């Protein structure tokens, strides 16, 4: 293995952000998942900041669902010191098709591809260095997890060369899973069939192994979380707030809670567990917010308790309500003394009257 180092400035970043985010509905009814507020910023902005910190400046976003939202917010990327281009998928092309779809915008021979659903903490330069040092055609970021059964496993040999790609299995031979970040030699992307749906996991990667291409894994124990479900979204946001997951955007500001400067929090309220409170939100006296994400313009009336939940923009939570493990959609109104729990999802604009939903008797 040589001591060659990668040149991030001569690397393209491609981020796949075309998914519909159905597992996070109703939050994604009006907003693409990568644009949901996460510890005070659109989720995607944390990844873009990590890409910039690694020294990569040219970024191509592969969009589809509500594609216009991304460009409206990030523009050409210059405010972040990046150069961002956008490519829209007219129809669902899968991971491989999505990567092939941006081929014409690539500028460099090294291309780093990111799954826009993943919150990660790995050293991006280290993955690039592995790619260069191994003279790899493809380098995959592999992360070790305690229970790999729910993921695709990727065993490697002592040199780090990938041996096979295994679908979810009850008895995985390794704890290494595909973490959704890849470094491609550009020519491989050109070889992906254009204009149709292609899965890199099921089609592209196995074909590369059959062709005896140099496919390597970069294995680490870095922070990694798929943000696709509400419980993971809440945990990911709170891990960012507490500094467990690192983001350059939150440097020096992490703690038990982060509260936007324009939000109002009344005396006697307790905000813990990595809670985030967004712009213009109002938290009444005697409230407790634990491990929760409160978007912009939310009103939480006195005495309410909110745990492990997401409260979307403009929602109102009534006095002494109890909200646990729930998703409350935009503009919904939850009446006083209501009790919501166990994964309940309230759609945007829904109004639940005072005492309208309870699990305990109305004493």
UniProtKB/TrEMBL annotation:
GO molecular function: mannose-1-phosphate guanylyltransferase (GTP) activity
This enzyme's EC code(s): 2.7.7.13
Keyword Transferase: yes
Superkingdom in the source lineage: Bacteria
Gene3D superfamilies: Hexapeptide repeat proteins, Spore Coat Polysaccharide Biosynthesis Protein SpsA, Chain A
InterPro entries associated with the record: GMPPB_C (IPR056729), Mannose-1P_guanyltransferase (IPR050486), NTP_transferase_dom (IPR005835), Nucleotide-diphossugar_trans (IPR029044)
Keywords from the named record: Nucleotidyltransferase, Transferase
SUPFAM superfamilies, sorted: Nucleotide-diphospho-sugar transferases
Sequence intervals crossing the membrane: none
Mannose-1-phosphate guanyltransferase C-terminal domain boundaries: 255-343
Signal peptide region: none
Transferase listed as a keyword: yes
Pfam families documented for this protein: GMPPB_C (PF25087), NTP_transferase (PF00483)
Ranges for domain Nucleotidyl transferase: 13-240
PANTHER family: SUGAR-1-PHOSPHATE GUANYL TRANSFERASE
Family named by the database record: Belongs to the transferase hexapeptide repeat family.
Stated name of the protein: Nucleoside-diphosphate-sugar pyrophosphorylase
